[in-house]
Amino acid sequence: LPGKGDHARLASFVGAMAIGDLVKSTLGPKGMDKILQNVGRSKSVSVTNDGATILKSIYVDNPAAKVLVNISKAQDDEVGDGTTSVVVFASELLRQAEQLVAQHVHPMTIIQGFREACEAAKKALEDSAADNASDAEKFQEDLMNIAKTTLSSKILTHDKEHFAKLAVKAVMRLKGSGNLEMIQIIQKPGGSLKDSFLDEGFILDKRFGVGQPKRIENAKILVANTPMDTDKIKIYGARVRVDSMTKVAEIEQAEREKMKRKCEKILSYGINCFINRQLIYNYPEQIFTDAGVAAIEHADFEGIERLALVTGGDICSTFDNPGDVQLGSCDLIEEIMIGEDRLIRFSGVAKGEACTIV
Questions:
Q1: Which of 93, 126, 171, 248 maximizes the CB count within 10 A of its CB?
Q2: Nearest to 85 by CA among 97, 67, 72
Q3: pLDDT band at 234 (very low <50, low <70, confident <90, very high)
Q4: Cα radius of gyration (the chain)
């Protein structure tokens, strides 16, 4: 008679196989998409055939099934592809293992067999692998084929040639460093899939201030994360008692002076482009405009992190010692139009690997 242990083991097998069957139908070029509906308040609907996305979205109770979901997450984080295959493969192995367990083969024996098979499979793969790294043309052809294969099961199948080219070009620019932070992806509605292009350099989805130069050559860039909005009183919860309106005006004047000094410190770096993560109010913006410096405000956190990385500059918060700060540099900053939006392009950046896919 089967004991409690056998029941628990069977439950694990069944759960894992159910997960495998769930994503199996999305595998390969003839794979179907799944429509997922959110059971929360939003009732949002998403259509996808990406294994990791599907498994992230479903609630799983079975411990073995949870392990399979984690496998697909790990695969997604490490490699970014093969999320469905790895789950289907693992569930099929368990399906075979279940038949062996039913024939009273001990689980440890089965695991030992799996390990030996893994070594044999590894060896077979290594024997049949080819490396064209020395021949640039063949290497690029291999990369193109890999990119096309991964896109075959996605929505981009019809334009896979175009997108494979974009991906390969972007990766080849990295010169083997593998730092994917350098590749930025911007999505803009309007236009067809074919209109997507690779832009050498960095594109920031922001605008220059009013009346500032729209094109800067040989730019010296200061990337900062500092409040530039204290030309009005905004000390929360602070009470100031004054006996006349002139005193209030004096306080505001002192604030303005403080702001002016801060702007002069920033300008003393000899820059011609100032990019801040936070707001820049009208008064400091006016000071920068008078000095002929372009100021870009609200460049979100990811934007300035990446900008600092790409232009080779530091992110500053204080401006007392100009000698310690590394300024960013690039050959040209200009405003461009993509669709109906204006964006700012930095070309000829210090790190030539950087590029943007639009």
A1: 171
A2: 72
A3: low
A4: 29
